[in-house]
Write a structure and sequence with these properties.
Strand content: 15-25%
Structural class: alpha+beta
Strand order of the largest sheet: 1-2-3-4
Helix content: 25-40%
Order of helices and strands: HHHHEEEHHE
Shape: globular
């Protein structure tokens, strides 16, 4: 008589369907997988590009908790191989709606999530203060940057339709 295989966790299963992954992510509360797990999946080429991007989005949703700073995100990312300099930029022109709340004096940063050679989605961060693209890249891509930039509060997060 065959034995039943234990259920596989869609978050850590490279073969999981995207629907199962989305359902598993939706079921996660504040006491879910650690940032290391979410970002470990993002760094693992065994996972499909959409799976990796959804895990980055899940991490960001949990990490931007009203207490988040750019430095804390940079520390968690820790120089990710999946995030290149070209993937982070300050939004300087708005031609439509953005998925974040922002006000004058704040900066909107876009983090393009590119895996497998194609853009899968984008995350938008509203941050306190006026920052330029090089400052954002220093913290998020290289985990560097001055104290003023690293302590900048992340006020809101949003995603494009692919990751919403």
């Amino acid at each position: 008589m065959p034995t039943a295989q234990p259920a596989r966790d869609p978050i850590t299963d490279p073969a999981a369907s995207i629907d199962d992954l989305r359902a598993a992510i939706a079921a996660v509360s504040g006491v879910g997988p650690t940032g290391a797990l979410w970002l470990g999946v993002a760094a693992d080429d065994r996972f499909p590009p959409v799976h990796r991007a959804l895990c980055v989005a899940a991490f960001l949703r949990l990490a931007v908790d009203g207490d988040a700073t750019l430095g804390r995100l940079g520390d968690a990312f820790d120089r990710p191989g999946w995030l290149g300099e070209q993937d982070v930029e300050a939004v300087t022109v708005v031609a439509g709606k953005l998925p974040v709340h922002w006000a004058p004096g704040e900066t909107i940063a876009v983090v393009h999530l590119r895996f497998g050679g194609a853009q899968v989605g984008a995350a938008y961060l509203a941050v306190d203060g006026a920052l330029e693209t090089p400052e954002l890249r220093a913290v998020l891509c290289r985990n560097e940057g001055g104290d003023e930039t690293r302590t900048t509060s992340v006020l809101d997060i949003g995603f494009d339709a692919a990751l919403a």
